[in-house]
Amino acid sequence: MRDYKNVRVPRKDRVSSSRTTVKRVTVSRTRKPRQTGAGRVFARLIGMVFIAAGIVLGWQGYQWAVRSGVFQVRGVDVKGVRQLTEQDIRKIAGVMAGGNIFTVDLDAAAQRARAHPWVKDVRVHRRMPDRISMVVTERVPVAILDTGKTRHLLDNESVAIARAASETAPLPLIMVRNAAVTYGDHVRAGGVLAALEVLAELSSRGGWDLGSMTIKADSADAVTLVYKGREIRIGSGNYVEKLRRLTEVMADVRQRKQDFAYIDLRPERQAAVMVRSSAGR
Question: Fold for domain 69-138?
């Protein structure tokens, strides 16, 4: 075997550096011809023509939709109605019948519906191609306001709804003499708001026959509950704590087998009780 360790390489075949040589090659890119000024103007004109054509076609389509009988409102579907009469519904929804479904003013229709004392809220939608849908939320009476001359239904927001009929289901009575009442508006006279707050608290606690209850509320400071021949003087404010005290006092009176004429809860953290008679007598 031949030994190549001591072989001499001719000078002409020797390499002076061990680094790799990299050569850069510049490749010329083909440039696109620039658009001339006339070409740019022509392109803009073409774009403007297309935009104008789109506007014209859109306007013509709108005119056709507005005038076409296909989109004429043929009916209004009303849901959630129990107290509104057919005549009330016609007044609210009748103005939309026969109009174009795209041009009918839904906001105006909703505002007209909310103006009715029984309507608390309403949602109005288009149902293509030719119907309108109305979903009504009616007010729910929670008490009867007695002004000394007339009686009116109130909801939990103190809004006067309508005249209380004799056949109205049993509801708690709030007595505020000479209170001004406008249907659809809030009643702020006397202690109406305080009386409603007391009723809401009693309703949440349960165990009370609210239909047998009368609240005298000529003023917020003189709120008095009359229940089954007994008088409970509540006064104004802090109703949660006062009704808690009332529960404790009534339980104590029953345990003692006594009856009371009235309980006064107006003193802070106290209760004055006027005992009437023994329950066994």
Answer: Ubiquitin-like (UB roll) (3.10.20)
